[in-house]
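Review form for a predicted model. The reviewer records the input and the model, then writes brief findings.
Reviewer: anonymous (R2)
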Amino acid sequence: MLIVAERINATRKPIREALERKDVAFLLEEAKKQEAAGAHFLDVNAGTEAEKEIENLPWLVELLQDAVNIPLCLDTANDEALARALRVYRKGEVMINSFTAEARRIEAVLPLAQEHKAYVVGLAMGDGGIPETVADRLKLVERLVQATEDYGIPRERLFIDPLVVPIGTDQRQGRVFLETLQALKQEFPGVRTICGLSNISFGMPNRRLLNRTFLALCIGYGLDAAIVDPLDQELMAVLFAALALTGQDEFCMNYIAAYRSGKLCS
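Model under review:
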């Protein structure tokens, strides 16, 4: 399972302030800690104001790409910021997060994904926002899959995000997500799945408990990647345990290694 480390995100106050003062030491420390904790991709989000993001995202990419060994996930809805960031990116493997089923997003993002041979995250939403039902989300997923095929992007480079809606606004949405995940894996073989896990608990008390429990459920339903905080040791312990329990950890070797290195919480 791929872990996309979420902490370098300008919606977080410490990151926003670090970007404003160009605090290189702080940002490098955040990146290196997440890599050491087991992240496979480092999410980079500089989205505060549009004009600032156009400057800050390429700056962040240049700063971080040589500081860690893992590739970056460029997290932006700003087309110009994405294009500029990709121009300065030189690590090779890269993930673009994200595009939707809206025609303008497809036309803006997928040519860049094709050009840079990027992994790309497709969100199950369109002009009408996030659908409430499994069936309506799958219709949008079909459009996302067809669009990537039209641009010659292999299915194994597409990650679909069925979209997590907070249960605090609609208690049915955890189940809707899981059922969408399961149906998606059956109807679109070869396509991988991802989600911003912590959205599930927004507005609720003891968010970490909900996040950990939801992660275990998602793994059981076939989730391939998650955008999470790898410094949350209890969440990472649940990940190792869930992968072992669902037969996704050969001979449970990763679970055993995590135990021996002190990464599992009792």
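Findings: DSSP finds ten helices and eight strands in the chain.
Further findings: The chain has a mean pLDDT of 95.
Recommendation: see findings above.
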